Automatic annotation (TrEMBL):
Location in the cell: Cytoplasm
SUPFAM superfamilies from the UniProt entry: Nucleotidylyl transferase, Ribosomal protein L25-like
Family as reported in the entry's similarity comment: Belongs to the class-I aminoacyl-tRNA synthetase family.
CDD domains the record matches: GlnRS_core (cd00807)
Domain Glutamyl/glutaminyl-tRNA synthetase class Ib anti-codon binding span(s) in chain numbering: 341-440
Protein name, UniProt field: Glutamine--tRNA ligase
Domain tRNA synthetases class I (E and Q) anti-codon binding per the UniProt entry, residue ranges: 458-532
Binding site for L-glutamine: D70, Y214
Protein's gene: glnS
EC numbers, comma separated: 6.1.1.18
Assembly and oligomerization: Monomer.
């Protein structure tokens, strides 16, 4: 195993190979990457992958990473999103070199456009969007030039200045690059560089009424910042010739674009547009609903930054589209939480147990390990008394063979406490079991057990008079199919109606009264939990981060 691991560590992904080669042959002295989110929504786990990749690459090779907001579309962008994005990147554990905004380059981008017009590489087109699309041809048919393509440089300069000055309405004119209307690559058929949009921008206000298109802004922004390796997702491959064309014809810093496959995860959707619909149509409580694939959703659910970084590392960098099983992400968080979560006992569906041979009114303080995985574990106090709660499902009146929990005449160990034996039970008029009568073995105390009795089952429990109340929220997958976006019809038709189960009152050991937001817990036999932000003075609320085992895999096998 460790041999295999070492092998893995030695082999480089294709981006690392490129960077090593570029550094070795002196193409760059150091590398500079960037993470370029559009502030039109909250980041999702796919963005986390891109963040880990861009920041990770720079860290590994002693370079730096910029955070650049790709804010060229005034209509959909907002400072709320800018703030959340900064929060998320920091939470993941990364610090950027410079915080930059594509909108800061609007003046320079305008000047670049003027330069291209002067060189005869751009023209103002009065055609409508439909006309432009029609004249562009199809992949098998070349496009045709219209009368605007041959406008003089002078006329173009004047018209472009007038566009900027607000002389025209939205859609009346565009600025296009003059490249090749017969190119097999549709992106090269005189792509639009600027469109008119009389809209307020979250940073530049009303200063501009023309805005650069992605293709005219992105590469130039990279170049302005001297980005060496501009990493993006595969759908931008056909944009690369255009990226290079602008840089070449402007003779500016030669940034280069490289593409990797975007992360797709089972049982969720991963586009800001779709996530926004879930929020706006109230299928979830907000962008940070713990069922969302957003970074803030995972954070609220109790995921650790480390688990997400490990996940990003494990899935690696591929050049082919694929769908990653969400159980891999769950595996990463379980591994991390197992190492750090404090163990606590919480009974969800209580059945009262009376220890008939335990002194009435007495409370004994037992010690429980906070974390058996930690050789230097701390301990918490666990009160024990005559009246306890166990889980209703941990008792059977008539037990089958190999049932190692409680049944009449059977013994179990109460975790961190004593061995008890069930002597009798009480039923109400409807036949429901209301109470168990048990005896405890005083010499069987955990840590100093001299009873010599071996029992197979260990149960979690709480002392009834000491128990505190809490609410737990049990989350499941938000969608009931692996890839909701590829199913027929609307992706929202595939929402899992049982993605949230709320248990309003559970009975928790008193140590949980002091829970803090950053704490992580394993509720024994129940799963990993963390405090939710809805917690108030009156009520503790816990989110289930993940179950202890992959219960979904079992469900699928059962059919
Ligand atoms: P969405 O469609 O979800 O809005 P986007 O690509 O439009 O995604 P941007 O804010 O433009 O979102 O992306 C910022 C960076 O994150 C880009 O470099 C983009 O390639 C990358 N990215 C976005 N989604 C993923 C994903 N699923 N996997 C990996 N990287 C991604
Ligand atoms: Mg986008």
């Amino acid at each position: 195993m460790s041999e295999i691991k070492k092998e893995e560590e030695k082999s480089l992904n294709f981006l690392e190979e490129i960077v090593e080669e570029d550094l070795k042959n002196g193409r760059y002295k150091s590398i500079l990457t960037r993470f370029p989110p559009e502030p039109n929504g909250y980041l999702h786990i796919g963005h986390a992958k891109s963040i880990c990749l861009n920041f990770g690459l720079a860290q590994k090779y002693g370079g730096k990473t910029n955070l650049r907001f790709d804010d060229t579309n005034p209509v959909t962008e907002d400072t709320e999103y800018v703030d959340s994005i900064k929060d998320d990147v920091r939470w993941l554990g990364f610090e950027w070199a410079d915080e930059l905004y594509a909108s800061d380059y609007f003046e320079q981008l305008y000047n670049f456009a003027v330069e291209l017009i002067k060189k005869g590489f751009a023209y103002v087109d009065d055609s409508s969007a439909e006309e432009i699309a029609k004249q562009k041809g199809t992949p098998t048919e070349p496009g045709v030039a219209n009368q605007y393509r041959s406008r003089s440089g002078e006329e173009n300069l004047q018209l472009f200045a007038d566009m900027r000055a607000g002389k025209y309405k939205d859609g009346e004119k565009v600025l296009r690059a003059k490249i090749d209307l017969a190119s097999p690559n549709m992106h090269m058929r005189d792509p639009i560089m600027y469109r008119i949009k009389h809209a307020h921008h979250h940073r530049t206000g009303d200063k501009w009424c023309i805005y650069p298109m992605y293709d005219f802004a992105h590469g130039q922004s990279d170049s302005i910042e001297n980005i060496t390796h501009s990493v993006c997702t595969l759908e931008f491959i056909p944009h690369r010739p255009l990226y290079d064309w602008f840089i070449e014809n402007l003779a500016i810093f030669p940034s280069h674009q490289y593409e990797f496959s975007r992360l797709n995860l089972t049982y969720t959707v991963m586009s800001k547009r779709k996530l926004k619909q879930l929020v706006e149509e109230k299928h979830v409580t907000g962008w940070d609903d713990p069922r969302m694939s957003t970074i803030s959703g995972f954070r609220r659910r109790g995921y650790t930054p480390q688990s997400i970084r490990t996940f990003a590392e494990k899935i690696g960098v591929a050049k082919r589209e694929n769908l990653i099983d969400v159980s891999l992400l769950e595996f990463c968080i379980r591994e991390d939480l197992n190492k750090m979560a404090h163990r606590r006992m919480v009974v969800f569906d209580p059945l009262k147990v009376i220890i008939t041979n335990y002194e009435e009114g007495k409370t004994e303080i037992l010690k429980g390990e906070d974390n058996p995985e930690d050789p230097n574990t701390t301990y918490r106090d666990i009160p024990f008394s005559r009246e306890l709660y166990i889980e209703r499902e941990d008792f059977m009146e008539v037990a089958p063979k190999k049932y190692f929990r409680l049944a009449p005449g059977q013994m179990v160990r109460l975790k961190s406490a004593y061995i008890i034996k069930c002597d009798d039970f009480v039923k109400d008029a409807d036949g429901n079991i209301t109470e168990l009568h048990c005896t405890y073995i005083p010499e069987s105390k955990s840590g100093s057990d001299t009873s010599g009795i071996n029992v197979k089952g260990t149960l979690h429990w709480v002392s009834a008079p000491d128990a505190i109340h809490a609410e737990v929220r049990l989350y499941d997958r938000l969608f009931r199919v692996e890839d909701p976006s590829s199913e027929e019809g609307d992706f929202k038709d595939y929402i899992n109606p049982n993605s949230l189960e709320v248990v309003e009152t559970v009975y928790a050991e008193p140590a949980l009264a002091h829970s803090k937001f950053e704490d992580r817990y394993q509720f024994l036999r129940k799963g990993y939990f963390c405090l939710d932000k809805d917690t108030s003075e009156e009520k503790l609320i816990f989110n289930r981060t993940v179950t202890l085992k992959d219960t979904w895999a079992k469900e699928v096998k059962k059919g």
